[in-house]
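Researcher: Good morning. I'm working through a list of sequences from a screen, and I'd like to move beyond sequence-only analysis. For each chain I'm collecting a predicted structure so we can compare shapes side by side. This is the next one on the list. No need for commentary yet; just the structure.
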Amino acid sequence: MVAAGSQRIDKWLFFARVVKSRSLAQKLVASGAVRINSVKTDLPAATVMLGDGVTITLERRVIVYRVLAPGIRRGPAEEARKLYEDLTPPPAPAEPKQAAREPGAGRPTKRERRALDRWLEPGDD
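Model: Good morning. Structure tokens for this chain:
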């Protein structure tokens, strides 16, 4: 028997539009990529209740949601956003790539190769 305000995690992930289909939600949970209140679950039939924290590990990011309501149907995105509160931390700022290199480190640039060629050419002495 399912308690009021609770739902299967695979259905909730589908209704909250985390995945495109319920079978994909079942595979995501079975792979161990979903945690409910910091406890890893691999059962698609695990129940999620109001106030639970759901952590989802996708390809390159981690999503943290707090369950606000069980889903009734897979509706539009505005309706799906009412099912959860997004607690995902902001991504860390990317470090800027350095375009310059230390002189003498690595391969010479085209400009440096031309200067070297001019220096090594038999000159018009």
